[in-house]
UniProtKB/TrEMBL annotation:
This is Cytochrome c. It comes from Mariniblastus fucicola. Residues 1-21 form the signal peptide. Gene3D superfamilies: Cytochrome c-like domain, Leucine-rich Repeat Variant, TolB, C-terminal domain. SUPFAM superfamilies: ARM repeat, Cytochrome c, Soluble quinoprotein glucose dehydrogenase. The keyword Flavoprotein does not apply.
Amino acid sequence: MRLYLFFLAVVVLTHGTNGFAQDGQHRPELSTSQFDVHPELDVTLFAAEPLLANPTNIDVDHSGRVWVCEVINYRQKIANGDIPERTEGDRIIIVEDSDGDGKADETRVFYQGRDVDSAHGICVLGNRVIVSANDSVFYLIDDDGDLKADRKEILFTGIGGTQHDHGIHAFVFGPDGKLYFNFGNEGKQICDAQGEPIVDRAGNVVKDSIRPYQQGMVFRCNLDGSEFETLAWNFRNNWEVCVDSFGTLWQSDNDDDGNRSTRINYVMPYGNYGYRDETDGSGWRSNRTGMHSEVPLKHWHLNDPGVIPNLLQTGAGSPTGICLYEGDALPEVFRNQIIHCDAGPNIVRSYPVENDGAGYQASTVNMVDGAKKNQWFRPSDVCIAPHGTLIVADWYDPGVGGHRMRDVQRGRLFRVFAKGTGTAWSFADRLTNESAIEWLKSPNQSRRFLAWSFIQKNKPADVIDALWKTWRNDSNPRFRARAMWLLGEVTDAQEKLESIVDTGLADSDPNIRIATLRFCRRYSSKLNVDAVEKKIDHADPSLQVRREIAVGLRDMQPANLAEQWIQLAMQHNGDDRWYLEALGIAAEGHWDACLDLLVVAKENGKISTAAFRDIVWRSRGRQTPQLLIEIINQPDVTDSQVLRYFRAFDFIKSLCSESSQRDAESRLGKLAFAERTPGQKPKVIFRESTNRIQLESLSPEQSARIDEIMSNCDDAEFVELALNFGDDDRDKKLLSIALENSDKKVGADAMAILMRRKKLGMVQRALVTSGDEQFARYVNALVRCGVREGGHVLAGFSDGKDKPMERRVAAVRALGKTSSGAGDLLWRVQNGKNDPELEPVIAATLHSAPWGYIRDAAAKHFPLPPFKDAKPLPAIADLLKRSGDNRKGEAIFAGVGTCAKCHVVNGKGVEIGPDLSEIGSKLSREAMFESILFPSAGISHNYENWLIAKDDGEIVSGLLLTKTDATTTVKDINGIVHEIDADEIEQQKRLKLSLMPADLIREFSEQELIDLVDYLMSLRKPK
């Protein structure tokens, strides 16, 4: 159903103020006293302004120097025009503790220029520094060792998301000698140094094009950018990726702001991570069969086959830097675990990971928390120094998100270390043959890279011998894995490489076996692949190892892939989503052969019913539709399970040929009309089957059955069926349903179908002949239906001077509830086309419109009355000194403030703008005032207001929910979702202004504003 109206773009976060910035609590020497710190840790200030400001990303080199992307020129032209530009450009600086006392005392400028404005990533690899900035990635190279960049070498170009948080992010060096990195969902595509689109090793252009890739992605390549691989996709804003010594990848991902769905991911190669619908790119709000009721699960399409589970969902947040701590200087709880910054809730956390089936699960351990005492603490990155201390970068600002910043003078670096271990900061040792292995074991990435490069380039015999000893004998499996990777790089003799494989595959540690499987893929050109395949134990007792074997099949594409796959599939327990998705990744492109073997295994009793059904649900083969139908028909399959299996049909359709689609629809028709015992399940089967059948696919007998059913079903079922099986004889009932249910979804849907069927004349006649109560209901249904023709009917009626004035007034007021209708009213005023008799109601309607551009234009023709009490607004610094009553504020939120009309708090309200249930955990009090007074200063991502110009001259305004090749979907201020056909769109533009009224202050007094802010600040994340 195509609907359309509009929306309110909402601010969740904006800038701070000068008054608060000058407050004494922001002195650097007080900063560590404002943290709640894990009892086994200490935190000290390493550096602060004026040594640095606004660190977006950092790295720590082999000597303990901290390299910083220092960003001042951040979206000035878009969100921060009130902040002066640094005309010389942003800087890459080096912050150093020259005397070893644990406090920085010197800053060097490594590079400055407009090409590093708003840089979001830095990776120090010896004298070559990778910078990720705007649309490019490049090396800055120091040829003479003076800590000044001498030249620039382009690595990648053409990346989307210039001056955008959701673009390119930092690179890291992996234990396998590869580079790993990612971009968020504004990255869109990536090109080589010459601007040519990159084609990855799978043969696909790396581009957000839905098939196969979309949204945020994770990549791997060589140091020179070659052998480019797309490892995973369909994230929203995966800020950074980290890789452990075994080659396992971890990262965070941000949700659509306000939905408390931020997540941590284990990155399974070739995984789809579910931010958008796999088939058409539609958003998580779009209705789909079997979707979860809970937003955090619904948000990531976790009900869809082909979506990798989440490791952990952390609620509201603005996740930033991440690292994998593989040192021993921190307490045991943090060793070999993810360390992560989340700037939204002002916290640095660790996520201890445990096995969970073939995947993992994680818990949360807070390390450094600034939420209670200073919400300006905005940790942006975390890195590991050579001796295992953490360095945490602090962007330091009253807010985060919406591309907005306020403070450009401050920035901090903190040291985090085990309690009582001192503040020494000296790294005088040099890389030599004797120290190379110890450097390779370092928790610091720069040292590991230098050791790897030194050994790979020079191949000193004594170091190679030590490397073999480390691989064979070291008690730390992570050191053994690092040695193994490097041995693959420096060893050419096949027998020696095969000895590594033999030892690794037989190791008692599953992580070593996993790393060995990855090693085999990494160095397959040096190995006898057929011989290696025979050594792999497809019945390995570890689910994680069997998962990795499955993923490896996708990589290696052996001739007997299906035969290897079925060995793994027969061990599925039917309840391990991680394992299931690994099987799906392995079978991609081979589903027909795999399903043939699966059916035989089921017939021979070699796989459980639960496992068989689970794999069929995930499958994408020629046999899948029939197998799904057979499962659905089983008496033990419940109603909810039926929905799950029907959802799987949606993923088959996009892959089928036209003849296969017809065959599938024919089978669904037989399923829909099969004789069954009455009950809820047959109703579900009928509804879901017919929703996937076109009218022309029905046989005469089935058409007759549809007639019978539609003559006896309830209104909701009738409307649902009329969408696919409507005809002229059923339009009268649709009109009746719209009349009787005008304030309900079923009534709006019925009217929308009539509008789509071009029954405008029928509805116009009903408006003329109806009584007053019926007229009001028809008008309400026309407004709620959201289809453009509904506005045409209302506009035509309001023009009719022969119509009763009270009905014309009602039509005008109804027009003002839609952006196109209000725009039409405004056009009439501007061009002298409005009826003078209607001018008072037109003026009132336009001034109460929720769209700022309508109100502003209307004000030129109909001047506004003065503000409430005519009292001027005091400075925010003065407002901050006053306290309010949050109980009164709650009443204002629901009443005079009208906030609940667009926001949900703890399940109450209307979901148009962001959910504010935890907004007090994200914004400082200062930023809260500004988000109300200046709503356009920092509009939250995914809540921007879009204007869509249609080919008939109408303007649609709304929250962009989904954009596919076929339709664009927006959500209006009334919470109604509207779909616009792509061929009707002439132009679309994201507005800079929020439609949250900038003059909301006129609705209440100064004290009421303060009460409202105090109430919002009380809305915090539960402990």
